[in-house]
Amino acid sequence: MRIVVQRSSRSSVEVNNETVAAINSGMVLLVCLEKGDSEKSISSAVEKILNLRIFSDDQGRMNKNILQSNGEILAVSQFTLSWNGKKGNRPSFDNSMEPDKANLYFEKFCSLLEKTVTVKKGVFGESMQVTITNDGPVTFFLEF
Fold first, then answer.
1. Distance in angstroms (rounded) separating the CA atoms of residues 69 and 58
2. Catalytic residue among 6, 55, 78, 124
3. Predicted model pTM
4. Quick check: is 80 catalytic?
5. CATH homologous superfamily, domain 2-143
């Protein structure tokens, strides 16, 4: 499982020129499920994301997590993250989890996050236009 985490001041997802999800302050998660991922990797990812201290405290230091900052999460399925870019110039997504299973795992991931924080989602498997206002910029790449 690979996740790009971006701290965001506002972000949204459009499908067919219609906004399907939007957040103000929070995190954008670009989520890639790969072959071999399990419920354990999903749980580990949820725990890490909820506890990441990437939001500013009163001194301007990254010292608060998403809950302490009253932020929201925008989660977007992103199978293209499965390519590591080391060989060739044409991306291969052979390591991506098969779509039906990936959709189930993506929904499980989001529902676990939703137990604690507001989560908005893109539309799995659709062509999406994602607008991200990266705050900082602050971006992290996580693997589970």
1. 11
2. 78
3. 0.95
4. yes
5. D-tyrosyl-tRNA(Tyr) deacylase (3.50.80.10)
